[in-house]
Automatic annotation (TrEMBL):
Family matches, as PANTHER family: COA BINDING DOMAIN CONTAINING PROTEIN, PEPTIDYL-LYSINE N-ACETYLTRANSFERASE PATZ
InterPro entries: Acyl_CoA_acyltransferase, ATP_grasp_subdomain_1, CoA-bd, GNAT_dom, Ligase_CoA_dom, NAD(P)-bd_dom_sf, Succ_CoA_lig_flav_dom, Succinyl-CoA_synth-like
Protein name: Bifunctional GNAT family N-acetyltransferase/acetate--CoA ligase family protein
Organism: Streptomyces thermocarboxydovorans
N-acetyltransferase domain residues: 22-181
Length: 908
């Protein structure tokens, strides 16, 4: 790796602490003049701190070093803003610098410089983060740095990275040693810096002081005019301008012929012109100093899209869209509604981000109708820049949002999104619509793993691990939001049903059971208490049938007693209108909403005559509150089930990635390099390198032998035979995956003659294909399982586990989690498939080796996380017995892949 290897590490854009955008890229020879100027423009004091002395030659020598001929072990990255170099970070492996052999050394000396006037904006820290990522990819495990002890800024930079740093004082100098381990402490520090920068960059977008609408038409019907009207009529408190060369005012808003002619530079420009004109307008906005763009226009070709995004990056403008509905923020004192929706969103506490404008309109209307309201809204459209991850970090910091709703059709960086979501959803519910569930998935999959790993399963793993509440429709999203907004979380899944009509109670009971909730029997003591307050003829089972004769007070007493009962986590009150209640003037709904004190458990209503699917009914409790009322029991049950899962997720401590012994990552990477050198386009591993790779990660594999002739097969069988003398023979040729389907396996072979006959049979039937055979001892009886990995280009490695054998794809009894797996993820993988009771000893009375199974999955996850070139790993079957876990057949496919740090700070 060298400083001139530009294709190895392409330029990326990232945010500084104040929200400004910079380009981070490798140094090129033509940067010499700018780098020399970077140092020449430094104050004498800063030059002394950087070079430990003052010399007119220091700037030129530094530029010579950074831009000189390529050499092993040296890398330099620079930060560039609007064509000006504002920072430089470099490292050189210490052996190379001293002229020694580089092999086996893992340490490099690092240096960083930032232009005068740009300190304390995060330039140096951002450069070092990117240099750390590059160094890890180069196999470097530690940085060293020498600094003067008075250079507090650079010492603070190293100390605040989040990496383990040791200092050794040597007179006036300090030698720092920085371990480059990417642990959770470091990732958390990077995330915090990223959140600060992200929020700062979004402020001109969501809290602009001045807005210009470019493309606002003079006649009704244009999208730009509609957005201008929304901003004007919605009470936007900042300065508002229209840009239209043919008008001086539109809807009473001053209009100017161009962005550059505006009397004040807007923070935000909303562009609603035909797509071909947008890149030029964006360039004009950038030159004028606009900080953010919302582009509602659609129909961009590849060149127009590239020009638009390049312009935004060049001038540091955040971009929402294109092809979007717009944005809004109801913060008091802002009242920004830059959308072309029919109405204004009600102020509230729900943050909303969508890709579909139609879904956005539905959510805005639904949240306003329910009284939840919206804190901020963004229609992301084609999502060139601003993403759901950006909005999550904004809502986490805005002090208003307590409920986040997402509708995302794609994920730019799912692993970074997952870490952000895990953090945010511990502070507020995060709900999404799981769009695209019917996608056919991968076609003509090459292995069991790839066949099982549908996009639906991958998204489900992301949502589950991040604690995201995934619903199946916009309606279900709003139904669940209503419950989470107005009610406490249930402590568990135990539900009691109270009804004034037996049939309605049965429907509610079915709905709860189908949603995975539990309806426990009530204790005799509680039953007696309930019957004492209910009318004659009532039944105090679960459901509780209070009968049509129940009065408001009786129903109130009944619900209060159930809420106080410790064996119930939530109450569903299902009501139908009756003439009895009407005649007595009772309002049975008031039995739920009229309590003066907040109810400590979630209580929901089901009113079968209700016109809307869900309503929020205000309560009389001090401090307010609301009770969700549903038109169908299924909606109430689904919402409660989501709430119970969220409660369980919150109650569970965050998982950790266990340390593994006996892992030889460097040897595994060398095996991968050797294989891809021989197979540049990628290929399935042959049995020997496959076994070697498993050994690098301590994955147990049944003994085996390779044979290319009859005599070799007989000799191998003799060596492998167990106590019963039986062996298995499997044909092999490059690309063979499903051996059983091809009938390329012989089981239960005894004696030399059967070995020879099986060998001849395979060579006869697969003449011209078979390159040899694999022999193994016949495995003992046990549970056949399946474990595998598929590398998703967007989501990263996905680990799958479930029932194995020849019917694994037919039965489809699999669970999946995204790597790297935590201890909780592994437990979930083992307990989620339908076959889990078999593993726990449901029939035999003896559980399989669960600790061994956990180790297998953790080691498979580590292998996938270490090796991005691992496209597929297919372990089927994996034999699990009470005495151990062993892989009987393993297939691994490697493909060329450039490692990419998913947690490195960069814009899309």
């Amino acid at each position: 790796m060298t400083q001139h290897d530009v294709t190895d590490r392409p330029p990326v854009h990232a945010l500084l602490a104040d929200g400004a955008t910079v380009c981070i890229r490798p140094v090129r020879p033509e940067d010499h003049e700018q780098i020399q100027r970077l140092y020449e423009e430094m104050s004498p004091e800063n030059l002394r701190l950087r070079f430990f002395s003052l010399s007119r030659r220091s700037a030129r020598l530094a530029a010579d070093r950074a831009c000189g001929p390529a050499r092993p072990g040296y890398r330099a990255l620079l930060a560039e803003r609007r064509g000006r170099v504002i920072g430089l970070a470099e490292y050189e492996t210490e052996d190379d610098k001293e002229g020694g052999a580089a092999a086996g050394r893992k340490t490099a000396e690092v240096a960083v410089a930032v232009a005068d006037g740009l300190h304390h904006r995060g330039v140096g820290t951002l450069l070092v983060e990117h240099l750390v990522s590059a160094a890890r990819a180069d196999g470097i495990t530690a940085f060293t740095a020498d600094a003067l002890s008075e250079n507090r800024e650079v010492l603070k930079l190293f100390a605040d990275l989040g990496l383990r740093t040791e200092r050794r004082f040597e007179g006036p100098e300090v030698r720092c040693t920085i371990a480059l381990d990417q642990d959770d402490t470091y990732l958390t520090a990077v995330e915090e810096r990223g959140r600060t920068a992200d929020v700062a960059s979004l402020r001109p977008l969501l809290r602009p002081r001045t807005v210009a609408v470019v493309g606002a038409g003079r006649t009704p019907g244009s999208v730009g005019r509609a957005i201008l009207r929304q901003l004007h009529s919605g009470g936007y408190t900042g300065r508002l301008f229209a840009v239209n060369p043919g008008a001086t005012a539109i809807l009473g808003v001053p209009s100017y012929p161009s962005v550059s002619s505006l009397p004040r530079t807007p923070d935000l420009a909303v562009i609603a012109t035909p797509a071909p004109a947008v890149p030029g307008i964006a360039e004009e906005c950038g030159r004028a100093g606009v900080r953010a763009l919302v582009v509602v226009s659609a129909g961009f070709d590849e060149d127009q899209a590239r020009r638009l995004l390049t312009t935004c990056r060049t001038y540091g403008m955040r971009l929402v869209g294109p092809n979007c509905l717009g944005i809004s923020d109801t913060e008091p004192g802002i009242s920004l509604d830059a959308t072309f929706a029919a109405g204004h969103p009600s102020p509230g506490t729900a943050g909303v981000a969508v890709q579909s404008g139609g879904v956005g309109i539905a959510l805005l209307e639904g949240l306003s109708r329910l009284g939840i309201g919206v804190s901020s809204f963004a229609s992301l459209g084609d999502k060139y820049d601003v993403s759901g991850n950006d909005l999550l970090q904004w809502w986490e910091s805005d002090g208003r949002t307590d409920l986040a709703l997402l509708h995302l059709e794609s994920f730019g960086n799912p692993r970074a999104f997952s870490r952000t979501a895990r953090r945010v959803t511990r502070r507020m519910p995060l709900l999404t619509v799981d769009a695209g569930r019917t996608e056919a998935g991968r076609k003509a999959a090459a292995s069991h793993t790839a066949a099982a790993a549908t996009r639906t399963m991958t998204r489900g793993a992301l949502f589950t691990q991040a604690g995201i509440t995934a619903t199946r429709s916009v309606g279900e999203l709003l139904e669940t939001a209503a419950l989470l907004h107005g009610q406490p979380l249930p402590a568990g899944p135990r539900v009691a049903i109270v009804t004034n009509a037996g049939g309605a109670g049965v429907l509610a009971a079915d709905a709860c059971a189908e949603a995975g909730l539990v309806l426990p029997a009530l204790t005799p003591e509680l039953t007696g208490d309930l019957l004492a307050v209910l009318p004659e003829g009532a039944a105090a089972g679960n459901p509780v049938d209070a009968t049509a004769a129940v009065s408001e007070q009786q129903l109130t007493d009944c619900v209060e007693r159930i809420v106080r009962y410790g064996g119930i986590d939530a109450v569903v009150v299902t009501l139908v209108p009756t003439a009895v209640a009407a005649a007595t003037g009772d309002d049975l709904v008031r039995a739920v909403t009229g309590a003066a004190a907040p109810i400590p458990k979630p209580v929901t209503l089901v009113r079968l005559e209700q016109a809307r699917s869900v309503e929020l009914l205000p309560t009389a409790a001090a401090g307010g509150g609301s009770v969700p009322s549903y038109a169908e029991p299924q909606a109430a049950a689904r919402a409660l089930a989501h709430a119970a899962r969220r409660s369980a997720w919150l109650a569970r401590p965050a998982g950790t990635i266990p340390a593994l012994d006996g892992v030889e990552t460097d040897r595994a990477r060398a095996l991968v390099r050797d294989h891809l050198a021989a197979h540049p386009d990628g290929a399935w591993l042959d049995p020997r390198p496959c076994a070697d790779l498993l050994a690098c990660y301590g994955i147990p594999h049944i003994p085996w032998a390779w044979a290319e002739t009859e005599d070799e097969a007989v000799t191998a069988a003799e060596r492998l035979r167990g106590a019963d003398g039986r062996v298995v023979m499997k044909a092999h040729w490059p690309g063979l995956v499903h051996k059983s389907e091809q009938r390329a396996v012989h089981l239960d072979l005894r004696g030399d003659q059967q070995i020879r006959s099986a060998f001849r049979d395979l060579h006869t039937r697969f003449a011209g294909l078979v390159t040899g055979v694999v022999l193994q001892p016949l495995a003992p009886r046990g549970t056949e399982l399946f474990a595998g990995v598929v590398q998703d280009q967007v989501f990263g490695p996905l680990v799958l586990f479930g029932l194995g054998g020849t019917a694994t794809e037919i039965l489809a009894d699999h669970a999946a989690r995204l790597a790297p797996l935590t201890d909780h993820d592994v437990q979930d993988l083992i307990t989620s498939p339908r076959c889990a009771p078999l593993l726990l000893g449901a029939h035999s009375g003896r559980a399989v080796d669960l600790a061994g199974l956990e180790q297998l999955l953790l080691r498979l996850s580590r292998m996938a996380a270490d090796l991005p070139q691992l496209a597929e790993a297919d372990f089927n079957p994996v034999l699990a017995t009470p005495d151990g876990v062993t892989v009987l057949d393993a297939r691994i496919r490697l493909v060329p892949c450039r490692p990419q740090d998913p947690y490195l700070r960069r814009l899309r």
